[in-house]
Input
Amino acid sequence: MTASRRLVLVHAHPDDETLATGGVVARYTADPDTDVTVVTCTLGEEGEVIPAELAELAPGRADQLGGYRIGELARALAALGGPRHVYLGGVGRFRDSGMALAGDGGVRATTRADLHPRAFADPGRLAEETDLLVELLTELQPQVLVTYADDGGYGHPDHVRAHEITVAAASRVPSVEKVYFAVEGRSALDAGLAELAAEAGLPYRLPDPGELPSVPDETVTTRIDCTAHRAARVAAIRAHVTQAYLWEKDGGLVAYAMSNDVAQPLLDVEEYILSGAPEGLAETDLFEGIGS
Output
């Protein structure tokens, strides 16, 4: 590591790095003065498989999805510029925990009752996972960390666990100055969805009100313009063939969907919340204030 700025992003599954933070990964990887490392905590073994020809990879069948997604992730990271990549504790040490619906009639996720013995969200593994991340961060010496908000965005137990270990590890690694949570502000998401709704031929259904997670605009502290890296982000989404559909319209409009066929806009500005930020903060750079 020779760059003066060091960024680490902690993600639960392959594809999260692209869908939640692909713009930031591409933007800062392209900066020669910034070292970027993506940490992936599981292989995403419990994901649903979209292409029918790959259905046998699913956990209830051959259970080979995790291995397949290693290749998808490698191609996605290459599209995003080739940041350093690490699996927490080594490849396959922790398994995707899967999820259950919260049972409130919405799309919130919660922890399954039948956790695999290697499940990332296993309560008994919290200390082990945190220690492994501390060890990695001590080696990498980042000033900035990125992960999910405390609810994981929509409650997925692996996203929640990634938040927990990142926040805990940050308090034990002196180099860390800032911790960010990837979010989508309500206004930006609504504007993106309105743009999709106005287009003919959208192959996915529009979400019901509140179906996609978002946060109040006033909680967003940091907005990163990733317009210049849209092509890289699109290529990275395409790499995750088992997990995402992609639709492009002439003129640059892009939508993607997961196995639920719910349309999501690809927004050019990624939004984040800085942990412990002062009221009214409005940043355009994750490294703002560092080294000054």
Q: What stands out?
A: The radius of gyration is 18 Å. The domain at 5-273 is CATH 3.40.50.10320 (Rossmann fold). Residues 28 and 159 are 23 Å apart (CA to CA).
